[in-house]
Amino acid sequence: MENIEHIVYLMLENRSFDSVLGWLYQNDTPKTFIPPSDKPFDGLQSGDYFNRDTSGFKFPATAINKQQGQQIPAVDPHEEFQHVQIQVANTNGNPMGGFFNDFATTGSKKPEEIMAAYTPDSLPVLNDLAKKFAVSDAYFSSIPTQTNCNRAFSLTGNSIGNYHDIGSKRTAMVNNYWMTVEGVLTPYDFTGRNVWNVLSENGHGSTDDWMIFYSNK
Question: How far is Cα 118 from Cα 64, in angstroms, rounded to an integer?
């Protein structure tokens, strides 16, 4: 640990593992498994993965080639908690079988794009970093929903969770806003202690110790 000078924690927008790294080891295998394992890399190269539409037609997982660019899918998929439940829990004849039909409700003219995933050629930077360092093929978001809950969880171990102090209503931040059975509420201020609080409370509170960088582009 004494040789580590900087820790960079980069959180990007939400994407599935398969979408960006599913074809990482299409033509070879990882040199090292931690811990040691005989299981293959759990990407898209080792299975016949597909979803079915409402008529039962099969749409397989496909690879995005370099010429197609990096704007696939062209329409954002649904990210809200209730939609993610449909995507991952609706088997429709196959595990994780609800992505195609849920994406079809976005109005996309090419719903099959939800089954397309990038390759080392079409997304070279992230795939090259994953090969040169380490990547987990069994990492899951803390909550199967939108961005803010999972960002809060990554820094505090808490996604705000459930509250009972609005009369008899029970609220929870399961999306990027507060919901009750009766509608949407203005969110509480988030008061949970985060990693920056802990660092500052232990004598590491200057810009020489840590800084936050962000971009809205």
Answer: 5
